[in-house]
Design a protein that fits this description.
It contains eight helices and eight strands. With 217 residues, the chain is an alpha/beta fold. It has one domain: Alpha-Beta Barrel (TIM Barrel), CATH 3.20.20. It has an eight-stranded parallel beta sheet with strand order 1-8-7-6-5-4-3-2. The structure holds D-xylitol-5-phosphate (DX5) and zinc ion. D-xylitol-5-phosphate binds next to strand 2, strand 8 and helix 7.
């Protein structure tokens, strides 16, 4: 059964008004605040660092979901926890010792997630599934908000759902990139538990209503 969780991506928020944006999310039906950290190495963009995360955390009444698009995650895991991370996801291609990294995330007290890029097969996750709480499927190439949803993601979710049901049905399936009201319903039906939405939420006329609509998709 899909859990229908929504995690608005703060990358699309108005950074001149962090407090108001977080308060809008606090009073919405959002389940998590998705935090995109980019290093300009693993992805061709730099987003924001821990001082900004701390500012978000200071006002946030929702749990924070950290998506690390960085080459060297290990030295920053504790910083993520201090900045409020309840979930930390790392890219399978970026972590040379992925098992060590996800084990460390759990030891620090957060849920550990692994992220897979659009071109990578879900079968690459087989051996790591017993050690994670969440799998994040990228439905765009990571690095930027506002990109077009890659349609082959639907089949990938179905494949992953089968694997997860066998390995550990508790694992949360999260989708990130180009999520909107046209694909949300089919993603939940295919087995997704949690949808990240950046532009679709923050650029809409009524972000709170948009979040609520996505939850009902
Ligand atoms: C992309 C980020 C996403 C992004 C989603 O690299 O990981 O979380 O903010 O933004 P939208 O929903 O606009 O595609
Ligand atoms: Zn993200």
């Amino acid at each position: 059964m899909s859990r229908k969780l929504i995690a608005p991506s703060f990358l699309a928020a108005d950074f001149a008004n962090i407090q108001q944006e977080v308060e809008m999310l606090n009073s919405s039906e959002a389940d998590y605040i998705h935090i995109d950290i980019m290093d300009g190495v693993f992805v061709p963009n730099i987003s924001f660092g821990f001082p900004v995360c701390q500012a978000i955390h200071q006002h946030a009444k929702k749990p924070m979901d950290f998506h690390l698009m960085i080459e060297h995650a290990d030295p920053y895991l504790e910083d993520c926890i201090k900045a409020g991370a309840e979930i930390i996801t790392v890219h399978e291609e970026a972590c040379r010792h992925l098992h060590r990294t996800v084990t460390e995330i759990r030891r620090l007290g957060a849920k550990a997630g692994v992220v897979i890029n659009p071109h990578r097969p879900v079968s690459a996750l087989e051996e790591i599934l017993p050690y994670v709480d969440l799998v994040l499927l990228m439905s765009v190439n990571p690095g930027f908000g506002g990109q077009k949803f890659i349609e082959t993601t639907f089949d990938k979710v179905r494949k992953l759902k089968k694997m997860v049901d066998q390995a550990n049905p508790e694992i949360i399936i999260e989708i990130d990139g180009g999520v909107n009201d046209k694909n949300a319903g089919e993603l939940f039906n295919a087995g997704a538990d949690m949808l990240v939405a950046g532009s679709f939420v923050f650029k809409s006329d009524d972000p709170r209503q948009t979040i609520s609509n996505l939850k009902k998709a």
